[in-house]
Specification:
- The protein is mainly beta.
- The protein is elongated.
- It contains one helix and ten strands.
- A hairpin with a 5-residue loop joins β1 and β2.
- The chain has two domains: 38 residues; 124 residues, Immunoglobulin-like (Sandwich), CATH 2.60.40.150.
- The longest helix is centred in the first third of the chain and has 22 residues.
Length: 172
């Protein structure tokens, strides 16, 4: 009988110990336990990325004509983009323009933004042999502290002549 009581006492202790261990709620959601790009007690604070790589830019919309005239004499526009910051051109793919482009044309860029929180001007041009035509542009901040790190960043505005879709990768 003594062995039985000894066994039961230890069994109860073991059951209580297991119950307390497995019923504990994990409270610490420190940086090591949060998804990539988030931190904080509840993993609800975005971490500012160290780099943003623009993999490609899709020109989702642009004016069909150049003030009523065709972009080119016999064909559609030969589209390229530039990316500027504070009036300085940081990226220019005019040597890789897309001939006879239509809305939805994708331009591969592979460009790392030097300032992840900065404002950038992304301009769309029609390449011509003598004088390129400005089709429109957007001034935007690619990263915001509440955007949730989308892999596709949509850029448009009510008064803009163009709209863009950026394929991006964030590095932390």
């Amino acid at each position: 009988m003594i062995k039985y009581q000894y066994f039961m006492k230890h069994l109860v202790f073991l059951l209580l110990l297991c119950l307390s261990v497995f019923s504990c709620k994990k409270e610490d959601n420190g940086p090591g336990n949060c998804p990539n790009g988030f931190t904080g007690q509840n993993c609800d604070e975005q971490v500012t990325p160290t780099n943003i790589l623009i993999k490609s830019i899709t020109v989702t919309n642009f004016p069909p004509t150049d003030n009523g005239a065709g972009w080119d004499l016999t064909s559609g526009p030969d589209v390229y983009i530039t990316i500027s910051q504070n009036g300085n051109v940081l990226y220019d793919n005019s040597s890789n323009f897309v001939q006879n482009a239509s809305a939805g044309v994708t331009l591969n860029s592979q460009f790392v933004l030097p300032d992840v929180t900065g404002l950038y001007s992304i301009s769309v041009f029609d390449h011509d042999d003598f004088d390129d035509d400005y089709m429109g542009g957007i001034i935007a901040q690619v990263y915001t502290s509440t955007n949730g790190f989308p892999s596709i960043v949509q850029l448009s505005c009510a008064t803009c002549k163009v709209s863009l879709s950026l394929s991006v990768v964030y590095t932390f």
